[in-house]
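S.,

Sequence below, as promised.
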Amino acid sequence: MSAELFPEPELLTETFEPFGPEDEADPLAPFRPQDRAPSPPPSRATLAPSPRSRRGRARRLLPSEPALFPWIARRLVPGEMTVWSGPSVAVEPLLELLYVGSARARGRVSLLEGANRFHPYRLGELGRAFGLDARETVRRIRLARAFTAYQMVALVDGWAREIRRSHPTFLVAHELPALFFEAEFPPEERAPLLAQMARTLAEIARSTRLPMLVTSASGLAGFPGLKDEGPTLFDLVRLTLEPGGLALEAYREATRLALVHRPDGQRGLEEFVGAIAGEVTAWDGRYRRTGKRSRSG
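The prediction came back faster than expected:
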């Protein structure tokens, strides 16, 4: 079967399997974030210099609300790579939220899908929840996916040409190594081909000057060659499921964002002023810097 490229994914043209246990365990239904100190970063993760002296982005990648979007957007830097690491049940719902946020900001995503887990129906429904047209939400994603590791290498090689044609706002490479770890793939070919892909990704990031988000369930170790030969690493974000929610640890700023389930009708701590241990912001509240007192009402 040949690789597929979908310039305009449609909600009604594909067949989808029923939601499995991971879909039912969606960790993103309504949350509020809380910043706390993270655990120490991996010793081998080397981050790029701070971009404060660089020119600002040409356009806003994500809306200013909900509060989660600015937190994510700060880690998407032109010409560099941010890596999300964690289980699919944590990463994929957050990716779908990212795609919807991009659509709200009238951006376009160029997506290389390595795990064949793109769900346009679900994405369209999430877009509707944010007041967007479902079809327009999906049409703002340029999707390319492969069914063999060799097809994935070919898609990565042709990605720069597709980017020049479609003019996306940022790039997402979702689980590109997945096909290389299937039982029938020759193990001796894995490392050389993944290293080749990493070098190509580095050239794409440099030449396009677009932010690149790479997801790998087991982090840098799960994508051999990415650390040494891939794009400049701006940040590493580790996603971890916790009782009652999801934690995101970003190592550049030593920041830990906790997305916590809020039962229906629960009042948030952000309504109250006073000394509390750790500032809490509603997931759907206006973004503000931590360390400042909120105002009631």
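Strands lie at 4-6, 31-36, 81-85, 109-113, 141-145, 170-174, 212-215, 233-242, 245-250, 255-261.

Coffee later?
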